[in-house]
Write a structure and sequence with these properties.
CATH superfamily: P-loop containing nucleotide triphosphate hydrolases
Distance between the termini: 23 Å
Oligomer: single chain
Number of strands: 6
CATH topology: Rossmann fold
CATH architecture: 3-Layer(aba) Sandwich
Number of helices: 6
Order of helices and strands: EHEEHEHHEHEH
Radius of gyration: 15 Å
């Protein structure tokens, strides 16, 4: 029998790193290279089928696309409340967005100490413009005990698998009783 789960996940990171584009690619299989700034937060929904240890799950992701300004106040903290997992997203063409992830990690962890987090180096299709590489993202992920992927919302590379991996980590977390 398939178990149903509904879980909130957040996408966090500086402005214009591609959080909204990653969500559009995953939820609607669309990409638009026009930048539209997110104001506040927007919630999208997508169901996925997952399997862990012989058990089938129908997980509904409630995907919170949160304003990418590094003004961490009580409002931002409120957005993170109840999140079962998160993606922390940086833009490979802007080194500062990688460097700023530590701050995003600290703020998210201040609200959700145990929720699984995956780091995403987005816009990997722009490899000629890259200001950091996979090893740099891996170093940060290792420092915080997190997984990581290089993604491209434009081409779709590693987008769906990243969401599915986070879903599986959330199930493992759920089964562990955390």
């Amino acid at each position: 029998m398939t178990k149903k789960l509904m879980k909130k996940i957040c996408l966090l990171g500086d402005g214009a790193v591609g959080k909204t584009s990653l969500i559009r690619k995953f939820v609607f299989d669309r990409f638009d290279d026009k930048y539209i700034m997110t104001f506040g937060t927007k919630v999208s929904k997508k169901q996925v089928e997952l399997s862990r240890d012989g058990q089938e799950y129908m997980m509904t992701f409630l995907i919170w696309d949160i304003l990418g300004q590094r003004v961490h106040n009580n409002l931002h903290a409120a957005y993170y409340q109840g999140a079962s997992g998160a993606f922390l997203v940086c833009d490979v063409t802007r080194r500062d967005t990688l460097d700023n992830l530590e701050e995003w990690i600290d703020v998210f962890r201040g609200v959700n100490k145990e929720a699984p987090v995956i780091l995403l180096g987005n816009k990997f299709d722009l490899v000629d413009e890259a200001q950091f590489n996979t090893a740099d993202l891996k170093d940060l992920a290792d420092k915080f005990g997190m997984k990581y992927h290089m993604t491209s919302a434009k081409t779709g590379d590693h987008v769906e698998e990243s969401f599915l991996e986070l879903g599986n980590e959330i199930i493992d977390d759920h089964l562990g009783g955390k």
